[in-house]
């Protein structure tokens, strides 16, 4: 015990795995770009504004698939927020295009409103040079308030 301080015990959490390479994670190559594209972030901000009731879904008609626009009509104003909605970070990842060949992303965002936060997720597809929201999911508190049936998880 040089220096008078005992060293911490080697626990499985601190001990390196046998045969593990030191350095960067060996899961794969570095990400090409981890920042959410500006257009996707802007789409998330506009969706948040609809959810809190500050924007009409019709304004986004070129950026919403018809089923999403109908759902947003039902959900408009479902999130009580006295101030303009504030998005923290928008997380995204590339999604399987499902045979369409067009680039797709799945994104999620947290809406910060006063003392409460809400979350929503969406899938966007690149169509004719712009991102179009083709699917939208919100947290259960928003769905239950709007009358959309909520199936409890087992």
TrEMBL record:
Matches recorded under InterPro entries: DUF6459 (IPR045596)
Pfam families in UniProt: DUF6459 (PF20060)
Protein name per UniProt: Rv3235 family protein
Originating organism: Nocardiopsis tropica
């Amino acid at each position: 015990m040089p220096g008078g301080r005992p060293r911490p015990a080697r626990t499985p959490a601190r001990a390196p795995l046998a045969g593990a390479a030191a350095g960067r994670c060996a899961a794969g190559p570095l990400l090409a770009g981890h920042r959410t594209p500006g257009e996707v972030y802007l789409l998330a901000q506009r969706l948040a504004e609809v959810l809190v009731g500050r924007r009409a879904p019709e304004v986004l008609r070129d950026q919403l698939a018809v089923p999403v626009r109908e759902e947003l009509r039902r959900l408009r104003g479902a999130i009580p927020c006295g101030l303009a909605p504030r998005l923290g970070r928008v997380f995204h990842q590339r999604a399987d295009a499902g045979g369409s060949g067009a680039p797709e992303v799945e994104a999620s965002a947290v809406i910060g409103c006063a003392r409460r936060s809400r979350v929503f997720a969406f899938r966007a597809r690149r169509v004719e040079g712009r991102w179009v929201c083709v699917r939208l999911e919100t947290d259960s508190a928003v769905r239950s308030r709007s009358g959309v049936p909520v199936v409890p998880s087992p």
